[in-house]
Amino acid sequence: MIYLRNFSFPSEDREYNFILDEKRTCFDTFYPFKILSKNDFTEIDFEPVTILYGGNGSGKSTALNVIAEKIGASRDTIFNKSNFFKDYVDMCDMDEVKVAEIKRIITSDDVFDYILNLRNLNEGIDNKRENLFGDYLDAKYSGFKMKSLEDYEELKKVNSARSKTMSKFIRKNLMSSARFFGCQFIISTHSPLLLAIKGAKIYDLDESPVSVKPWTSLENVRTYYEFFKHHDSEF
C-alpha cells in the first residue's frame, strides 16, 4: 500500500538562503540543515517498502525523523530536534496519496525498552492465558441456547470453542493483531537481512549524489558476502 508517494527535502541553495537570513548568531549548529544536502539528497519516491541505507553520520536517521515529524507520526522515544528542526520540517514537501489511520515511528530505543519490559509483558500474557483456559472450558461444555439477538456474540464464542482444540482457541485469542496488512514501511538500516526484503527500494546515503541501488551492490552486504564466500568450505 502506498500512502506517502513522495517527500522532498530543501536543496542546498534553500538551506543557504535560510542560514543567511537567520538573525540568531549564538548557535554553532543548524542541524538538521546541511546534513542531507551535502550528498544532494533532496527527494524520495516511495514504494511499499523503502529503505534508507548508510553508515553512521550519513543522515538516514535524520531523514527518518524529519519524515515522521512532517507526517505527524506518533512516537515514544524523544530525539534531538534542535532549535532549527521545525524550520527545516516546514521547508519539506510531501505527496500524501492517502492518510493512514496509524502513523508510527519505532526506534531502536523503543525496541530496547520493549525488551526490558518483556518479562512483565509475558507475565500479563500468562495471566490472560489462564483466563482464556477458563473461558474455553465454560464455553465448550455449557448448555448454551440462544434466546435473543443479544446472545449472538456468546453463541459465536461457543461455536468457536466447540470447533477448535484448546490450543487453537487460545492461540487465536492471544495472537489477534499479530499480522498487519496494507502497511507502508520506511526503514533506516544497514542490516543485510532487512536490505534483502523482496521489492524494497533502497537509497544509498553514502553515495554523492544519493542514488537507488540493488541490495547486492551495497558495500556492507558485499563485505558479508566476501566473508562467507571465503569460509564457504567450513559450512
Identify low-pLDDT runs: none
Mean pLDDT: 82
Helix content: 40-55%
Estimated share of beta-strand residues:
5-15%
Total strand segments? 7
* Terminal-residue CA separation: 39 Å
Number of H- or I-type helical stretches: 9
* Estimated radius of gyration: 25 Å
- Quaternary organization: single chain
Shape: globular
Major sheet size, sense and barrel closure = 4 strands, mixed
Task: Spell the H/E element sequence.
Answer: EHEEHHEHHHHEHEEH
Structural class: alpha/beta
Biggest sheet, strands in spatial order?
A: 5-3-6-7
Give your account of this protein's structure.
By secondary structure, the chain is of the alpha/beta class. It has two domains: 4-100 and 184-234, no CATH class; 110-174, no CATH class. The protein is built from nine helices and seven strands, in the order βαββααβααααβαββα. The protein has helices spanning 12-21, 60-71, 85-90, 108-116, 118-140, 152-163, 166-174, 192-195, 219-230, and strands spanning 4-8, 43-45, 49-53, 93-96, 185-188, 201-204, 211-213. The strands form two sheets. The chain has a four-stranded mixed beta sheet, with helices on one face. It has a three-stranded antiparallel beta sheet with strand order 2-1-4, with helices on one face. Helix 5 packs across helix 6 (152-163) and helix 5 packs across helix 7 (166-174). The longest helix is centred in the middle third of the chain and has 23 residues, at 118-140. It is globular and about 75 Å long. The relative contact order is 0.17.
